[in-house]
C-alpha cells in the first residue's frame, strides 16, 4: 500500500495489490498512466518504502532485507539509466563495479552482454550516438550484469519504434528461456499479450482482473463477425442478415458503417454471412472473424483505453513518484 499526500489531498496510489509470480515466468502488470504500476515496482525494488502490507522478492522482505533484495534483482526503468558521454563498454563496466564485481569480472561480463545484445560493433562509441533501441538494450544489459533471479522491466519499450520493440521482445524471451523471472509493466496491450504468462490489470491502484491473456479475453466474449458495408442504405438489410443465427445482438456504427455480431459458429457462420450478403446484393468493404484483444478487455473492464489518462491519480503520482 502507498499513499501520496495527506488530508483531503491524499491519493492512494497502490491499495491492496497482491501479486504472486512463479519462478521462470513473466507477469505482465497492465494499466494506464497513473494506475500504480511504477509505484508498485519501486516498492518491490526497495526504491520506495511502502506505507503498509508486506512483500517478498526472491524470498527476501523488501522492508527488513533490502540489501538481499537488491542483490537478487535487476531493474530497467522507463528511461535508460546510462551515461551518454561514456561508451557502451564503459557504461557496462561502471555498472559492474557498482554491483561490486571486480574490474576483471566487470570487463568480462560487459563483453559477454555487448555480444548478446548486438552492441559489440558499437561498444566503443559514446552512448549519445546510439539509437533509442540501442540505448534501451544497453540499459537492459546493465540490469543483467549479475545474472539476477528476478528482473523488473518498467515499460521497457516506451518510445521505441516497432523494429526496436521487437528486438527487445526477443531479448526478454531469451532471458525467460534462461530461467529468469520477470515482472513487466506496460501500457502496450499487445506487448503483454506477446510476452506475459499471466497478466494483472490494475486501475486506480487496485487489481481489477488477472489471468492468462486468453482467460481475460474470455471475459469479453468469444469471436465476432465484423462487416463494413459500402452503402449506408444497406445497413438495415445487413443487420437483419447478421442477426440470423447469431449468439447475441448486432451492434451498428452508422458513422463507420460497421456491424458487429457474436459468432455462434465461428468460421462457418462467417461463410454463411458472406453467402447471404452476396445473395442480397449487399456490397461490403470489409468482413472478418475477429477474436477479442486485450484492448477490448481493458475497455470492457475500465470503460477507457489503456492510453487514456485517468483522473487525479496520474497528476498526484506524477508529482510524487516521477513516473506512474
UniProtKB/TrEMBL annotation:
Signal peptide: none annotated. It holds the Pfam family DrrA1-3_C. Residues 1-229 form the ABC transporter domain. It comes from the Bacteria. InterPro entries: AAA+_ATPase (IPR003593), ABC_transporter-like_ATP-bd (IPR003439), ABC_transporter-like_CS (IPR017871), ABC_transporter_ATP-binding (IPR050763), DrrA (IPR005894), DrrA1/2-like_C (IPR025302), P-loop_NTPase (IPR027417). One of its GO terms (biological process) is response to antibiotic. Keywords: Antibiotic resistance, ATP-binding, Cell membrane, Membrane, Nucleotide-binding, Translocase, Transport. One of its GO terms (cellular component) is plasma membrane. It is found in: Cell membrane. One of its GO terms (molecular function) is ATP hydrolysis activity. The keyword Iron-sulfur does not apply. It is a peripheral membrane protein. The keyword Nucleotide-binding applies. Belongs to the ABC transporter superfamily. Drug exporter-1 (DrugE1) (TC 3.A.1.105) family. This is Daunorubicin/doxorubicin resistance ABC transporter ATP-binding protein DrrA. It comes from Phytoactinopolyspora halophila.
Amino acid at each position: 500500500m502507498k499513499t501520496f499526500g495527506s488530508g483531503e489531498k491524499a491519493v492512494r496510489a497502490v491499495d491492496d495489490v497482491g501479486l504472486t509470480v512463479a519462478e521462470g515466468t513473466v507477469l505482465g502488470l497492465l494499466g494506464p498512466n497513473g494506475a500504480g504500476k511504477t509505484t508498485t515496482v519501486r516498492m518491490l525494488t526497495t526504491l520506495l518504502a511502502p506505507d503498509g502490507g508486506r512483500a517478498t522478492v526472491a524470498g527476501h522482505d523488501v522492508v527488513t532485507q533490502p540489501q538481499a533484495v537488491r542483490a537478487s534483482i535487476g531493474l530497467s526503468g522507463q528511461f535508460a539509466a546510462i551515461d551518454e558521454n561514456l561508451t557502451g563498454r564503459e557504461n557496462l563496466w561502471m555498472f559492474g563495479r557498482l554491483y561490486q564485481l571486480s574490474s576483471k569480472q566487470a570487463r568480462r561480463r560487459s563483453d559477454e552482454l555487448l555480444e548478446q545484445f548486438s552492441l559489440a560493433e558499437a561498444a566503443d562509441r559514446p552512448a549519445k550516438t546510439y539509437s533509442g533501441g540501442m540505448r534501451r538494450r544497453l540499459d537492459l544489459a546493465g540490469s543483467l550484469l549479475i545474472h539476477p533471479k528476478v528482473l523488473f522491466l518498467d515499460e521497457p519499450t516506451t518510445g521505441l519504434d516497432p523494429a526496436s520493440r521487437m528486438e527487445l521482445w526477443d531479448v526478454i524471451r531469451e532471458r525467460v528461456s534462461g530461467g529468469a523471472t520477470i515482472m513487466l509493466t506496460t501500457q502496450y496491450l499487445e506487448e503483454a499479450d506477446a510476452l506475459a504468462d499471466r497478466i494483472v490489470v490494475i486501475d486506480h491502484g487496485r487489481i481489477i482482473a488477472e489471468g492468462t491473456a486468453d482467460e481475460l479475453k474470455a471475459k469479453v466474449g468469444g469471436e465476432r463477425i465484423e462487416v463494413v458495408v459500402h452503402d449506408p442504405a444497406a445497413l438495415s438489410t445487413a443487420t437483419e442478415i447478421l442477426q440470423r443465427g447469431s449468439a447475441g445482438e448486432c451492434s451498428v456504427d452508422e458513422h463507420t458503417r460497421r456491424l458487429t455480431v457474436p459468432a455462434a459458429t465461428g468460421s462457418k457462420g462467417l461463410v454463411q454471412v458472406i453467402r447471404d450478403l452476396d445473395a442480397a446484393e449487399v456490397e461490403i468493404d470489409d468482413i472478418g472473424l475477429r477474436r477479442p484483444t486485450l484492448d477490448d478487455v481493458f475497455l470492457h473492464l475500465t470503460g477507457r483505453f489503456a492510453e487514456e489518462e485517468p483522473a487525479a491519480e496520474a497528476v498526484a503520482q506524477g508529482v510524487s513518484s516521477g513516473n506512474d
